[in-house]
Amino acid sequence: MQKLCKIKKSDYESFKEEIIKNIKKPKFYCKKCFRVAKTKKLLCSAETLKI
């Protein structure tokens, strides 16, 4: 799967299941767009999420 930051809005539906799986219990967020993910490799500018 490509980085979450790069997925176009029109492609969300086709990646829906995979996106949901990768954003549950996030550990990282993107400093540019504030998307969240479990793994660092799915974000373009990842930073550790400190909760």
Q: Could you explain how this protein is built, in words?
A:
This protein is α+β, with helices and mostly antiparallel strands. The protein has one helix at residues 12-23; strands at residues 28-30, 36-37, 46-48. It has a 3-stranded antiparallel β-sheet with strand order 2-1-3, with no helix packed on it. Strand 1 and strand 2 form a beta hairpin. The chain starts with 11 loop residues before the first helix and ends with a strand.
Q: Summed up, what is this model?
A:
With 51 residues, this protein is α+β, with helices and mostly antiparallel strands. The chain has one helix at residues 12-23, and strands at residues 28-30, 36-37, 46-48.
Give the topology, please.
Blueprint: H1 12-23, E1 28-30, E2 36-37, E3 46-48
Antiparallel strand pairs: 1-2, 1-3
Count of helical regions:
1
Number of E strands:
3
Assign an overall shape: globular
**Spatial arrangement of strands, main beta sheet:** 2-1-3
Relative helix content: 10-25%
Beta-strand portion reads 15-25%
**Can you give the mean pLDDT?**
92
Largest sheet: 3 strands, antiparallel
Q: What structural category characterises the helix and strand content?
A: alpha+beta
**First-to-last CA distance:** 26 Å
Which residues sit in consecutive blocks of at least 5 with pLDDT less than 50? none
Order of helices and strands: HEEE
Radius of gyration: 10 Å
